[in-house]
Amino acid sequence: MANVCFQMKGTAVTAVVMDLYDYSPDQFFEQLKQKIDSAPQFFNASPLVLNLASYDGELQAEQLHQVVGSCRELGLQPIACKAVGGKLASTVMRLGLASLPASNARATEIQVEPAQRVDEKAAIFRPSKVITKPVRSGQQVYAEGADLILMAAVSEGAEVLADGHIHVYAPLRGRALAGVQGDTDARIFCRQMEAELVSIAGYFILNDKLREQCWKQAAHAFLEGESIQVAAL
């Protein structure tokens, strides 16, 4: 009997999503460089999904080549385009990118009545995944279908993810991503906020903004509308 060579399965992959609104070669490159320079360790070699759903006008094939080229030149790794029109489908393929459909999941969620949302959340039992050892640089911990509880520090360059809440009873210096399957009620709690990035349901805030809010203090992060708020505990 032949040996099994591989196994295929679904998993959660952290990727930066770029919503492209407009394109001017010089402005785009300079603005992207400034953003990457604000958190170089986070953005270096990060997978990137380019979302064209909010683009003002019609992006041309040559412009898409330039956008992807600039991203690669600055160290990002484009992996897919979202909401691609029919005219750009062949260009996306030639660039070696996947084509993802536009998503209306967030709009559908917003239309749900508050009372229904409360009932749905109350009916959900979410287990917890507990990690007692430090999460070191380069390591990733994911709590699938669960909250994540960390009893030791999350180092710079480490990444912790959860479908639910994240609790860090120690310094948080790496990246923390809660509600990765779209739970906008997920929160991130930590004893000492020094994170490179915190993200909830796909929205994120970087180190430069975190330094302005409860830096090196006990804090929690939550989503308010489409903005992440950070408050002291």
TrEMBL record:
<dbReference type="Pfam" id="PF03775">
    <property type="entry name" value="MinC_C"/>
</dbReference>
<dbReference type="Pfam" id="PF05209">
    <property type="entry name" value="MinC_N"/>
</dbReference>
<dbReference type="InterPro" id="IPR013033">
    <property type="entry name" value="MinC"/>
</dbReference>
<dbReference type="GO" id="GO:0000917">
    <property type="term" value="P:division septum assembly"/>
</dbReference>
<dbReference type="GO" id="GO:0051302">
    <property type="term" value="P:regulation of cell division"/>
</dbReference>
<comment type="similarity">
    <text>Belongs to the MinC family.</text>
</comment>
<dbReference type="InterPro" id="IPR007874">
    <property type="entry name" value="MinC_N"/>
</dbReference>
<protein>
    <recommendedName>
        <fullName>Probable septum site-determining protein MinC</fullName>
    </recommendedName>
</protein>
<dbReference type="InterPro" id="IPR005526">
    <property type="entry name" value="Septum_form_inhib_MinC_C"/>
</dbReference>
<dbReference type="GO" id="GO:1901891">
    <property type="term" value="P:regulation of cell septum assembly"/>
</dbReference>
<keyword id="KW-0132">Cell division</keyword>
<comment type="function">
    <text>Cell division inhibitor that blocks the formation of polar Z ring septums. Rapidly oscillates between the poles of the cell to destabilize FtsZ filaments that have formed before they mature into polar Z rings. Prevents FtsZ polymerization.</text>
</comment>
<dbReference type="InterPro" id="IPR016098">
    <property type="entry name" value="CAP/MinC_C"/>
</dbReference>
<keyword id="KW-0131">Cell cycle</keyword>
<comment type="subunit">
    <text>Interacts with MinD and FtsZ.</text>
</comment>
<feature type="domain" description="Septum formation inhibitor MinC C-terminal">
    <location>
        <begin position="130"/>
        <end position="230"/>
    </location>
</feature>
<dbReference type="InterPro" id="IPR036145">
    <property type="entry name" value="MinC_C_sf"/>
</dbReference>
<feature type="domain" description="Septum formation inhibitor MinC N-terminal">
    <location>
        <begin position="6"/>
        <end position="78"/>
    </location>
</feature>
<keyword id="KW-0717">Septation</keyword>
<dbReference type="GO" id="GO:0000902">
    <property type="term" value="P:cell morphogenesis"/>
</dbReference>
